[in-house]
C-alpha cells in the first residue's frame, strides 16, 4: 500500500499551496489525536478552497473512519473528478486501497468495478489492466473468495509476470491449499483426494513465491508468505529465515515478530520468544502480543508477569478469556483468581464479559499445547473461539 496520504503535508502532490499544506498537516494531527470530526472539517475546508485531490481523498478516508460509507464514496468520486484524466486511475486505486485497508472489501470491489473502466487511459492498457486485475483479486481474497481470486491473479500473471503478481498468486494458492487440508477428513477416499489437491496447490504456492523473491529480493509479502508456507510444512528453520527477512524489510510491521516469537517458543528458546513478543507489542500488535507473551511467561513460571500480560490482553479483547484458560491448566482456580483480581481493577463490563465466557468452560479439556497457538497465529487476529 502506498499510504501516501499520511506523509508530511509539505510533500503532498503539486497543486496544494503552502497554506493548504499547513492545514492538511493540522487535519492529520487532529486525526491522530482521535478528533475525527474536527479533522474532517479541516479537510473539507481545504478541499473546497484549493480544489485538489489530496484533501478530497482525506475527506473520504475520514468519512470512512466515522462509519459513513456513502459519504466516503461520494468524496472519493469528487477526488476522481478533480484529477486530470491521465491520473484518474491512480486516484481510483488510491481510494480502493483505503477501502480495503479499512476492511471494506465488498465496497472496494464494487468501487473498482464501477470506477476503473471510466478512468483507464488509452495508453499503457496492458499495465493498467494488470493493476486493476490485481486489485480485484485482492478484494476477492479479502472476502474469502479464494478460487475466484486465483483465477484473476492467474489472468494477471499471463499478462505480466512480475514479483507482485507472483506473490499474490502464491498467497492465493497457499490459502486454497489450507482450505483443501481442512476438508481432508471423513470419507478416506475423499480425504486422500483433498490432500492431493492441497499438495498440488501448496507446491504451486511455493514455486510462485520463490519466483517473486527471485525477481524482487526485497518483496516483503513474498518473504512473509513463503515463511508461512514453510511454517505450515514444519520446516521451521526456513520459516524463521523468511520471517527474519520480512522483519528486516519492514521494521514497522509486527506480524513477523509474532511468528518469530511463536517459533522460538516451540523450540523452548524462551528469552528469544519474550523479546520477539515484546517487540511485536511495541509495534502495535496489542492484545495478540500480550496474550502470546502471557503464554511464554507462564511456561517460564514467571507467573505474576504472565497474569499481568494476560490481563492486558483480556482488557483489550475479553473474548480471549477462553484461550487464556488453556494456559491456566495448573493451579487453575488460584491462577484464575489472580487474573480476576487484576481485571476487577479495570472496567466492570470487561470483567463481566470475561466471567461469562469462563463460566461456559467447565468439563472441557484445554491443553496448553503449541497446536492451539499455531492454529490461532496462522489465522491472524481471529482466535479459534471466534470461528
What does it look like?
With 387 residues, the chain is mainly α. It has a domain at 267-387: Serine Threonine Protein Phosphatase 5, Tetratricopeptide repeat (Alpha Horseshoe), CATH 1.25.40. Helices cover 74% and strands 0% of the residues. The chain starts with 17 loop residues before the first helix and ends in a 9-residue tail after the last helix. The model is unreliable at 1-18, 329-334 and 342-387 (pLDDT under 50).
Order of helices and strands: HHHHHHHHHHHHHHHHHHHH
Largest sheet: none
Q: Uncertain segments of ≥5 residues (pLDDT<50)? A: 1-18, 329-334, 342-387
Continuous helix count? 20
What characteristic shape results from the CA principal axes? globular
Which CATH-level-2 architecture of the domain at 267-387?
Answer: Alpha Horseshoe
**What is the β-strand count?**
0
Q: Work out the strand percent.
A: under 5%
CATH class of the domain at 267-387 reads: Mainly Alpha
**Which percent range fits the helix content?**
over 70%
Q: What is the CATH topology assignment of the domain at 267-387?
A: Serine Threonine Protein Phosphatase 5, Tetratricopeptide repeat
The computed structural class is mainly alpha
State the separation between the terminal residues, measured CA to CA: 28 Å
Average predicted confidence as pLDDT: 77
* Radius of gyration over all CA atoms, rounded: 24 Å
Amino acid at each position: 500500500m502506498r499510504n501516501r496520504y499520511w506523509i508530511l503535508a509539505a510533500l503532498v502532490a503539486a497543486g496544494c499551496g503552502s497554506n493548504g499544506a499547513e492545514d492538511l498537516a493540522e487535519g492529520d494531527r487532529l486525526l491522530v489525536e482521535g478528533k475525527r470530526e474536527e479533522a474532517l472539517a479541516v479537510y473539507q475546508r481545504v478541499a473546497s478552497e484549493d480544489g485538489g485531490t489530496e484533501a478530497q481523498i482525506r475527506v473520504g478516508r475520514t468519512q470512512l473512519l466515522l462509519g459513513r460509507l456513502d459519504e466516503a464514496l461520494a468524496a472519493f468520486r469528487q477526488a476522481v473528478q478533480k484529477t486530470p484524466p491521465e491520473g484518474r486511475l491512480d486516484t481510483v486505486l488510491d481510494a480502493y486501497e483505503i477501502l480495503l485497508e479499512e476492511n471494506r472489501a465488498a465496497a472496494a470491489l464494487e468501487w473498482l468495478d464501477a470506477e476503473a473502466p471510466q478512468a483507464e487511459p488509452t495508453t499503457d492498457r496492458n499495465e493498467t489492466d494488470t493493476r486493476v486485475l490485481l486489485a480485484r483479486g485482492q478484494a476477492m481474497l479479502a472476502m474469502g473468495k479464494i478460487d475466484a481470486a486465483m483465477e484473476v491473479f492467474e489472468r494477471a500473471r499471463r499478462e505480466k509476470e512480475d514479483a507482485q503478481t507472483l506473490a499474490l498468486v502464491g498467497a492465493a494458492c497457499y490459502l486454497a491449499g489450507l482450505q483443501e487440508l481442512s476438508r481432508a477428513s471423513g470419507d478416506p477416499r475423499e480425504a486422500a483426494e483433498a490432500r492431493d489437491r492441497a499438495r498440488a496447490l501448496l507446491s504451486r504456492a511455493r514455486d510462485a513465491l520463490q519466483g517473486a523473491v527471485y525477481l524482487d529480493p526485497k518483496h516483503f509479502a513474498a518473504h512473509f508468505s513463503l515463511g508461512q508456507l514453510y511454517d505450515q510444512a514444519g520446516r521451521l528453520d526456513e520459516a524463521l529465515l523468511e520471517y527474519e527477512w520480512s522483519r528486516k524489510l519492514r521494521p514497522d510491521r509486527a506480524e513477523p515478530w509474532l511468528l518469530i516469537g511463536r517459533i522460538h517458543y516451540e523450540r523452548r528458546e524462551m528469552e528469544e520468544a519474550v523479546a520477539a513478543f515484546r517487540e511485536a507489542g511495541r509495534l502495535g500488535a496489542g492484545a495478540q502480543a500480550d496474550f502470546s507473551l502471557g503464554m511464554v511467561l507462564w511456561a517460564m513460571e514467571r507467573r505474576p508477569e504472565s497474569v499481568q500480560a494476560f490481563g492486558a490482553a483480556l482488557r483489550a479483547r475479553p473474548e480471549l478469556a477462553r484461550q487464556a484458560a488453556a494456559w491456566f491448566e495448573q493451579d487453575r482456580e488460584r491462577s484464575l483468581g489472580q487474573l480476576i483480581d487484576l481485571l476487577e481493577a479495570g472496567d466492570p463490563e470487561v470483567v463481566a464479559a470475561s466471567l461469562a465466557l469462563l463460566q461456559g468452560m467447565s468439563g472441557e479439556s484445554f491443553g496448553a499445547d503449541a497446536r492451539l497457538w499455531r492454529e490461532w497465529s496462522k489465522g491472524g487476529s481471529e482466535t479459534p473461539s471466534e470461528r
